[in-house]
Amino acid sequence: DADVTQTPRNRITKTGKRIMLECSQTKGHDRMYWYRQDPGLGLRLIYYSFDVKDINKGEISDGYSVSRQAQAKFSLSLESAIPNQTALYFCATSDPKQGASYGYTFGSGTRLTVV
Amino acid sequence: GQSLEQPSEVTAVEGAIVQINCTYQTSGFYGLSWYQQHDGGAPTFLSYNALDGLEETGRFSSFLSRSDSYGYLLLQELQMKDSASYFCAVDTGRRALTFGSGTRLQVQP
After folding, report:
1. B21-71 residue pLDDT tens
2. Contact across the interface for B96 and A33, Cβ inside 8 Å
3. Among B99, B103, B104, the residue to mutate for chain A (most A Cβ within 10 A)
4. Which of A109, A41, A13, A49 is nearest to B85 (CA)?
5. What does the alpha-carbon distance between residue B55 and residue B60 come to, in Å, rounded to a whole number?
6. What are phi and psi of B100, to 5 degrees?
7. Could A100 and B91 be called an inter-chain contact, meaning their C-beta atoms sit closer than 8 Å?
8. How many CB atoms lie within 10 A of CB B2?
9. How far is CA A46 from CA A37, A103, B99, in A?
10. CA-based Rg of chain A, rounded to a whole angstrom?
């Protein structure tokens, strides 16, 4: 099994629909992140969570919400999807004891298309 | 806020050496990371520099100059499999990493 699993891998949804992207990790890390990737724009931070009770907005949180159901699970929701939310979404995790020095582990990504 | 600049594309030939630069502006700085991403894949961690100087890991090396707010990734003995996008990312110690927009490296035979 992968260390970080994202579901679904691909999703097409209609404008105005609510959609949830799920992420689970088996690394036992406290910190989890959601990033969005658009061509030419790199990875932009949507939300991050340093533990189950600590959730923080990133630079592009408008239109998104998250839920940290357990240490291992961090879900991203689009309350009312719009076409400019079409993107590749990545979940990641890291070990707070090691910070960035040992790197983030990313999931395989969810490709979301809003039509 | 934070901002990072890196070239959008670099082309090199197999066996050569290539350097991908990254300049950054941040309020607070702990370190600079590098990630590799193949088309259709997830980013994978390559290196982290917290102190000035060169860190070497096999064919890849990463350099940091904190006084110049500058770093680079050096790839030696290029192989076709090195064709990928490379991202620098700053760690401010307060929140999540902020990534640059990425450099697409094309290795030609």
Report:
1. 999 998 889 999 999 999 999 999 999 999 999 999 899 999 999 999 999
2. yes
3. B99
4. A41
5. 9
6. -75, 175
7. yes
8. 18
9. 10, 18, 12
10. 13
